[in-house]
Amino acid sequence: MREAIQDSLMAGPLTVSYGRRRILDGVTVGPLPPGSITALLGANGSGKSTLLRALAGLKAADGAISLGDIALGTLAPPERARYCAYMPQTLPPPIRMQTLETVLVAMRTDHSSHRSNHIAHALRILSDLGLASLAHRYLDELSGGQRQLAGLAQALARSPRVLLLDEPLSALDLRHQFEVMDVLRDETASRGMVTVIVLHDLGVALRRADQAMLLANGQVVSAGPVSEVVTPEHLRRAFGVEARIEISSDGRPMLLVDGVA
Amino acid sequence: MDGDSADVTSAPRPPAAPPETSFPDVSGPALPSTEIETALVAYRSLQRRRIVVLASLLALLGVTFVVNLALGPARLGVHDIFRALLGQGDVGAQTIIWRLRLPYAVMAVLTGLALGLAGAEMQTILDNPLASPFTLGLSAAAAFGASLAIILDWRLPFPFLGGEGAVAANAFLFAIGSSLALDAVARLRGSATNTVVMFGIALVFTFQACVALLQFVASEDALQDLIFWTMGSVTRATWPKIGALLLACAIVSPFSLRSAWALTALRLGEDRAASMGVDVRRVRLASLMRISILAAIAVAFSGTIGFVGLVAPHIARRLVGEDHRAYLPAAALSGCLIMSGATIAARNLVPGQVLPVGIVTALVGIPFFLGVVLRRPAS
């Protein structure tokens, strides 16, 4: 346990305001151990994206953010970028650059020479995400879902210790959603990353995340193992819906939403 | 909050692998080396192709430059030109080259470079394919500054400058002032690039109205002068002006190239760039300063020359993509090439007359502008 905490992501209590409006109100995060996936859940406007941006250092927050004994919150942007990769909800724009190029741009800060092992690294990430055949296609020729995968490749290729993803599945079809979650599982485990993902689909969270944090009105409703967080009582409070958790025939938890609470 | 604390210490489902903090390195199953080799070759050939494109643009520019020196009422061969450049041969030819054709040709190239580079950076930092010094009010502001000097003889800032110098100084002041205003809006509104574009369009209309007002009260002679100024021309080129523009380009463009990675990252999306460690705000402000200097000086000396700053970046994007290490030089060279070509046309379309080059660039630019607007898919 001690070892796990050493490289864990911890934050808070965090407070974030836009003008007078308080978006996050004393939110405590973690410790989230390396090699684990945490699903960030909550209704629209509950503060999920803001929390992710605060963790990424893109939104100023009151409160400490640390990775093990590294005080992430106090690092300058280029320094912090070595530890954290963040992928926003918006898709990468359709620009005139090849997929592989954009991954290389994301990987290197001086980007003066691309040695062959960098290209090999970028290519492996692309092929893990099923994008190998699109490596030399221009982003402005790709579909929205393909661009989302390219954006994910850009974040993964940086080999971060903290991976922060804002709805990485929003433009993907069913099969790709699970493929991406599987790639994220593998990469998270093999690299010992702390991965935090904003998810809308509670079913994906139940099946693929280790932990969950449920937010409502800028506060934590519940945090812990997914099965303890995604409960009818919590969902009623966070989403205002009546829901049941049933065990499906293969023994896995399944979420059924009956209607508005 | 209920009994659950925000503490998520429970162990993850699969046993966590020992934390390894490696930087770009291949882990997991390696790809077949042939695949990597193929990608490497493809990537290298892409880079090579870009260098070839840049070299071709440069060569083409060289050709138009020589043509620019050669064509005109007095026919001069390449041999005559080189002798005249070296200060040898016919005195008449020397005068034509050194006093007329060379300053025009050099001014055209430098103006094109400044406008092309300024437009390219502007489209990147404002994330808008229609941004350019012309469409966002820098040219309109300069025209207003010039018209104050031409019509009202208002030359407060530099009373020691006479006539034409005062016009250029006024134009420069207003152009730099309007870009500082764009700057301030960008600062105040943070990242809302649309606001900056809206503000730029507001500047265009404001200054156009102001110029129209001055035209309304102007004397006939002053009106004539102003109209000629606003048409944009490189015939006002003098060696001191060329020196100033050259200095500006020489100082500014290395900084542009040094920001190439940050600007490229910005094209991937503002938040993405920020997460890569790019100080988006600083990059954007520094770029706006560069744009202001380049565009303001170019417009102050050559008047309103539209579309070069708008079109050159689009040509560059088509030719070399948006890696700014290639895109910025390509946009600058495209600007040079357009201006150089337009100058040839302006000087030779009507025998014995030099048309204002702004007319020619606009005529070339409008169809392209429409093409880009109509082709852009609705998103």
From TrEMBL, chain A:
Keyword annotations of the record: ATP-binding, Nucleotide-binding
Pfam families referenced in this protein's UniProt entry, alphabetically: ABC_tran (PF00005)
InterPro entries: AAA+_ATPase, ABC_transporter-like_ATP-bd, ABC_transporter-like_CS, P-loop_NTPase
SUPFAM superfamilies in the record: P-loop containing nucleoside triphosphate hydrolases
Highest taxon, organism lineage: Bacteria
Domain ABC transporter: 9-242
Coiled coil feature spans: none
Keyword rRNA processing: no
Molecular function terms from GO: ATP binding
The name this protein goes by in its record: ABC transporter ATP-binding protein
Lineage of the species this protein comes from: Bacteria, Pseudomonadati, Pseudomonadota, Alphaproteobacteria, Acetobacterales
